[in-house]
Amino acid sequence: MKKASSNFLESFQSFLLERGASLRTIEAYTEDVMSYCTWHQQSQGSIPKPEEITSIDLREYQSYLRNNRSMKPASLNRRLIGMKSYLKWAEEVGYIDRLPTFPKLARQQKSPPKALERKEQNRLLRQVERKAKARDTALIRLMLSCGLRVGEVVSLKTTDINIGERQGFVTVRSGKGFKWREVPVPNEARKVIQEWLEEREQKKVETEWLFPSRDCLQDPLSIRRVEQILTDYAQRSGIENLTPHTLRHTAATNMLQSGADIVTVATVLGHESLDTTMVYTRPGKRVMTEALEKSEM
């Protein structure tokens, strides 16, 4: 990218950081803007300044992603959402007078997220305990017991943790949409987080990050590394396709099955709309099978 365009992008990144965006969000939006600029340069011969991006350009870009890149609706929409955030920033700081009209987002089929069965959760936690790594146990519990997003977990600092004997809270400052929230920490999660904090203190780990990178203590653990850690435990536990999202989905399902109402679950997960949370209320195959078995004459 040319210097002028790089300056715009760097300013946008600084803006996101100041607003409390997670590292994952900043990386994703940066990729979205660079992808658009690459397309614009190839199709029109220049890298655009924010004021040079028009509604027609955005429609043509959407068409290019759909037809030439065969991009799935979810990925296509994310590209446009990233560009919208970029241009909203440009409008806010005065680079453009008004936001261009964006094309309608592509429709996408939403399927119920996969949650781990109780026996799978137990197998996973058993393997984690056998390895006896306080960091891994705390990391997994924050997603499985508290429903945090992986980006939220790796962005946590020690000052975001408030653990007592009878209750505990974690302050999420890098939530989706740059919003912060307080999430209660249940008993088992409190124990393992406290163990990790004590281990850090014994080892004299001097960094603000709750889960620092082993390569550089001044950097947080990367999302990619968390995914690798989960893959290792998944193989040991015999669980297929285990991701950070799976643990978050499982936390939501556990809450609902334990009698929590939809508003409470939405608040814990940081969902602005109840529609987003409603997907967790759809019964899985096992629940439907049990219901039919019980009702059969």
TrEMBL record:
Superkingdom of the organism of origin: Bacteria
Q: Where is the Tyr recombinase domain?
A: 111-293
The Core-binding (CB) domain covers 1-91
Coiled coil, from the record:
none
Supply the alphabetized keyword list.
DNA integration, DNA recombination, DNA-binding, Nucleotidyltransferase, Transferase
| Entry keyword Nucleotidyltransferase | yes
Identify the enzyme class: transferase
Under which EC number(s) is this enzyme classified?
Answer: 2.7.7.-
An annotated Gene Ontology molecular function: DNA binding
Q: Name one GO biological process term.
A: DNA integration
InterPro entries cross-referenced by the UniProt entry: CB, DNA_brk_join_enz, Integrase-like_cat_sf, Integrase_catalytic, Integrase_recombinase_N, Integrase_SAM-like_N, Tyrosine_recombinase_XerCD
Does Nucleotidyltransferase count among this protein's keywords? yes
Query: Which Pfam families does the UniProt entry name for this protein?
Result: Phage_int_SAM_1, Phage_integrase
Task: Describe the task this protein carries out.
Answer: Site-specific tyrosine recombinase, which acts by catalyzing the cutting and rejoining of the recombining DNA molecules.
Which family does the record assign? Belongs to the 'phage' integrase family.
Protein's name according to its UniProt entry? Integrase family protein
What is the organism of origin for this protein?
Heliorestis convoluta
